Amino acid sequence: MSHIATVQDAVTAFADFMEPTDAELDAIEQEMPVILADVDLLDAQIITLDRIPTELDNRRLRRALAARIALANRTTAATLPGGAA
User: 4, 20, 42, 47: which sits with the fewest CB atoms below 10 Å from its CB?
Assistant: First the structure.
């Protein structure tokens, strides 16, 4: 008979002192528009997986992709020194 060991250490390994720092939370908040744009793009792509895309689907894909590109470019431009894009 084999005994089942508890995984209490693994479950409680993340104590209060391991919470994200304010800087990490700020970074996540700054990336959130890009993350949401990626989700919109994936949703639009998933819709078209099992059928031929309609004109509405094509517009949704283009809009989601354009938003993702615009946010990525804005984020890249903001992080490059000297304002170069």
Answer: 4
Q: Is-contact 15 38, C-beta < 8 A? A: no
User: Which amino acid is residue 26, in one-letter code?
Assistant: D
pTM, entire model: 0.54
Burial of residue 4 (number of CB atoms within 10 Å: 0-12, 13-18, 19+): exposed
Buried b (16+ CB within 10 A) or exposed e, 15-46: eeeeeeeeeeeeeeeeeeebeebbebbeebee
32, amino acid identity: M
> pLDDT of 16-49, one tens digit each?
667 888 999 998 898 888 888 888 888 888 888 8
Tell me whether residue 71 is exposed, middle or buried, using C-beta atoms within 10 angstroms of its C-beta: 0 to 12, 13 to 18, 19 or more: middle
Opening angle at CA 79, ends 75 and 82, nearest 5 = 125
